[in-house]
Each structure stands twice: as structure tokens, then as C-alpha cells.
Design brief:
single chain; alpha+beta; Peroxidase, domain 1; four-stranded mixed beta sheet; 8 helices; 4 strands; 59% helix; elongated; cell membrane; proton-transporting ATP synthase activity, rotational mechanism; ATP synthesis; hydrogen ion transport
């Protein structure tokens, strides 16, 4: 059975995170993964190139060996496993999932807050302080989005959860109740 990319990302990230936790290197691994992510963003096709069956194995290994010397042995070994199982094109998903696990352990939830108008720094901070405990975290880091169609209020999306306090959704609820 072929696994979807999200499942692959979660499995590899979980294994790496557990190993990093075991050796008390979660922070160091996280920092190196951020560097690796930047490389894979700047060279957009790198994952596909390293997973492409049309490219000779020696050529792919040469690319990988040029990429890995600056990383700690833990990351080097991890990349070797990902490479061996031909999952280099899933590396960004793996890094994203590791980051989510790392943030979870830090008590941090990352998400978005959508409002009809731009928030002040104080308003954004207040929302972050209120939403974190509501979702079971110590702190929240929210990226702002502006959507005038919500009319007013806020919509917070984080960790596959949505807290919708928008005027638009309240009006839709009222409309449904009135139509019953």
C-alpha cells in the first residue's frame, strides 16, 4: 500500500523527533532543519531531483554528499535514511511536521487570525493570549490575515481547529434559525 505524503511526513518526523528527544537534541535538530528547509526552498526542485529515478544514483549521492557535511551526524544519518527510501521529495513535509511537534513540546501553537480590518499589536497580542489556553497551549503565535467578507469579529485557525467568532458566521446561524 502506497502512503500519502502527509502520512510519510508524520512518520519520518515522529521518528526523528523521538530520536532527537532521546539524545536531548530537539533544539539543535530543529535549527538544522530550518537551514535545510531554506536550502530546499531556494532550490525548489531539489527534493524531486534527489527522488527522480531517471537520475543516476551516483549523481544523486554526489548532490546529497555536497549538501550534508555541515550538518550533525544525527541529521546526516536521517537524510541518508530519507534518501535510501526515496523520500527526499517529502522532506519539506517532514520538516513541517517536526516543527509542529517541536512547537507542541514548547507549548506553542501556530496559526492564523482572520479579521475584517488590521489589528493593532495590542489586539493581536490579546487574541494570542486568549486563544492559547482555549486550545490547550501556553502561548500562541498567529499570523494576521484580513478578509473584509467576515464583516467583523475574528476567526482563528490553528492545529486543524477553527474558532469562528466572525459576524458573518453569527449572521448565517441567525439566518438558519429564522428559516426553520
Amino acid at each position: 500500500m502506497k502512503l500519502d505524503k502527509a502520512t510519510v511526513g508524520k512518520r519520518y518526523a515522529k521518528a526523528l523527533f523521538e530520536l532527537a528527544t532521546e539524545v536531548h537534541e530537539e533544539q539543535a535538530v530543529y535549527e538544522q532543519l530550518l537551514v535545510l528547509r531554506q536550502v530546499f526552498i531556494e532550490v525548489a526542485d531539489l527534493g524531486e531531483i534527489l527522488s527522480d529515478v531517471r537520475l543516476e544514483m551516483t549523481e544523486k549521492k554526489a548532490i546529497l554528499s555536497a549538501l550534508t557535511p555541515s550538518f550533525d551526524p544525527l541529521i546526516q544519518n536521517f537524510l541518508a535514511v530519507v534518501f535510501e527510501y526515496n523520500r527526499m521529495d517529502d522532506l519539506l513535509l517532514i520538516i513541517d511536521e517536526y516543527e509542529r511537534r517541536f512547537d507542541d513540546k514548547q507549548g506553542l501553537i501556530i496559526g492564523t487570525v482572520t479579521t475584517a480590518v488590521e489589528l493593532t499589536a495590542q489586539q493581536k497580542s490579546a487574541i494570542e493570549m486568549q486563544i492559547a489556553p482555549l486550545l490547550g497551549y501556553e502561548k500562541a503565535q498567529l499570523t494576521e490575515q484580513i478578509d473584509p467578507t467576515i464583516i467583523g469579529g475574528v476567526v482563528v485557525e490553528a492545529n486543524h481547529q477553527v474558532v469562528d467568532g466572525s459576524v458573518k458566521s453569527r449572521l448565517e446561524e441567525l439566518r438558519m434559525k429564522l428559516s426553520e
